[in-house]
What we know:
Elements: E1 4-5, E2 10-14, H1 19-25, H2 29-36, H3 44-56, E3 58-65, E4 68-76, E5 81-85, H4 94-108, E6 113-117, H5 123-132, E7 135-138, E8 141-145
Antiparallel strand pairs: 1-2, 2-3, 3-4, 4-5, 6-8, 7-8
Helix pairs in contact: 4-5
Amino acid sequence: MEAILIDQALRLVPYYPCPEVTLKWYQDPQLCLQVDHTTTPYTLEVLEKMYHYLSTHGRCYYIEYLGQLTGDISLLDNGELCIVVAPEFQNQHLGRRSVQAILELAERCGFEEVHANVYRFNHQSQRMFEAIGFERVAEELSLIHISEPTRLRRIS
């Protein structure tokens, strides 16, 4: 797996263990609520298990912005897309641009569709996925058909 260059400031870097940076993201109760529907912070053991699962069941990347790790994004073998952006880097379109790059990867890899599970109270993530072209097909499931290239919307 190689890094994916999005632009001069933003790229996706293949996963490598880096708990000294990533654990603090998953210590934020609001982020844990958005990701796991619980405010319980991750332990190091839970974090390691999560990354092991993501990296062995698909392609797992860090989102790197201006040389700093700012989140993670994964495309699982079953077509599920998972993304986390550290709270201090949210609302800067890093997530949208990273999702677009992963959708392009999914297209190159032959995926016909990609889905994201987003809790019904996570309006911020719902808006992001819908802005890219995902359609809500269930209360907490959004889907995009990769085989329809006009569906992939470019967000700058």
